[in-house]
Amino acid sequence: MSPPRAADLPEHVDVLIIGAGLSGIGTACYLQREHPLKSYALLEARGATGGTWDLFHYPGIRSDSDLHTFGYEFKPWTDRKSIAGADAILAYLRETAAEYGIDRQIRLHHRVHGAAWSSTDALWVVDVERTDTGERMKLSCRWLFCASGYYRYDQGFTPRFEGTERFRGPIVHPQHWPQGLDYQGKRVVIIGSGATAVTMVPAMAGAAAHVTMLQRTPTYIVPIPSEDPLAKLLRKLLPKAWAHALMRRKNIAMQRFIWRFCQRYPRLARRLIRWENTRQLPKGYPVDKHFNPPYDPWAQRLCVVPDSDLFKAISSGRASVVTEHIETFTEKGVQLKSGQELEADLIVTATGLNLQALGGIALSVDGAPVHLADRVAFKGMMLSGVPNFSLALGYTNASWTLKVGLLCEHFCRLLAYMDAHGYSICTPELGNPAMPTRPLLDFAAGYVQRSIDTLPRQGDRAPWVMSMDYQEDTRLLRDDAVTDPDLRFSSHVQTATSATPDVTVAG
């Protein structure tokens, strides 16, 4: 049999990054800086870069984390607002991609359906569809880095409500916001109490006749200023990079303090949040009914409202909160189990996301399918028994990007170690297969709980724990060695030519 022609072989890169959003662009920047000679490409299924910040178009969309920590460590955030809207975040991401030349490596309309690992060749063969033409192709890579986030881009979550077909107005999910939807002077009911709902209520209240946030369960809501006066002062006194670094350190410390305080003193934290809510709302407002969740602070993510915009909308009478269960939709709106009917011209179902691990990509290793629920996360960035594969998962209790940045640093150090020692394969393997495991995300949010059984798991000890502590991760991912007794390194060339066994390297 004649050898395959070069034209028949799939295009090959050293690292293939899936997703051109916040995580993917950041990963490419780190890789290009630390390994300028390695070839790479970013595949993006959609027709634009930016991920979340290009996908969502609902009124008021913004980050609920400050951009000094939600942005990149290497790229100063210079906008006056620390809590910024999607337009500013998207401009920042695309400016970063252009500044570092990442945009030249991005391939839009490239959806990854599956990836198959071959230990013999020490590479992944990736099945890709051109979503604009329907063409299918193969790419190969030495490393596969999944930066596709954790939710489905094509479908938000809407629970089943009785009688939706009876309602005479539009029912819209924020993930699929129609362009040009007119809500001027209309009565709007927003179902939900999470970050999306508390963002939309004040954003729509200025134009709508009235906006009602209909929630089944309250959420902890904390006001913060959208502009940080310290950031403004530091930018006047210091170079941009220095000011950004100092603000980042300050905000990391604050995030960590607040989270640990809530974990250690949940009753006191609850009282403090309730006191602040009471202070923000009109005298006599039923705070305990509408802003008193049945769970402890940070069992779910705290919602922040910049410049108290939600509380201002409620205080002005332009918005209101109703805490009740839905009985059915009616022709005129929503009937509650109490018998009350909320009349509406437009209903928004801000009811959450659908999780989708790895963007729905089907993985296989040497012909055997990878069932994610059977895998354990190694250092929060790799999967047991899956060679040369990494993924980006950020924090749920702080800015997402803080962890992703550390993961990217560690990933680049890992590549350097392999190059220095002539290794081509790196695989996490459970040293104790009987180690107890638990869900990957210890988080009570509904969107997590609905899909927790489809995700990988975590162990009960390092490095198999999914840490949510920046200082712990700094020690593990930035300061400690990349080697570990449960991380196996080998060379496929040695194996193929001399049957040299896999080498396990202890740190």
UniProtKB/TrEMBL annotation:
<dbReference type="InterPro" id="IPR020946">
    <property type="entry name" value="Flavin_mOase-like"/>
</dbReference>
<dbReference type="GO" id="GO:0004499">
    <property type="term" value="F:N,N-dimethylaniline monooxygenase activity"/>
</dbReference>
<keyword id="KW-0560">Oxidoreductase</keyword>
<keyword id="KW-0521">NADP</keyword>
<dbReference type="GO" id="GO:0050661">
    <property type="term" value="F:NADP binding"/>
</dbReference>
<comment type="similarity">
    <text>Belongs to the FAD-binding monooxygenase family.</text>
</comment>
<keyword id="KW-0274">FAD</keyword>
<dbReference type="InterPro" id="IPR051820">
    <property type="entry name" value="FAD-binding_MO"/>
</dbReference>
<dbReference type="InterPro" id="IPR036188">
    <property type="entry name" value="FAD/NAD-bd_sf"/>
</dbReference>
<dbReference type="Pfam" id="PF13450">
    <property type="entry name" value="NAD_binding_8"/>
</dbReference>
<dbReference type="Pfam" id="PF00743">
    <property type="entry name" value="FMO-like"/>
</dbReference>
<keyword id="KW-0285">Flavoprotein</keyword>
<keyword id="KW-0503">Monooxygenase</keyword>
<dbReference type="GO" id="GO:0050660">
    <property type="term" value="F:flavin adenine dinucleotide binding"/>
</dbReference>
<protein>
    <submittedName>
        <fullName>NAD(P)/FAD-dependent oxidoreductase</fullName>
    </submittedName>
</protein>
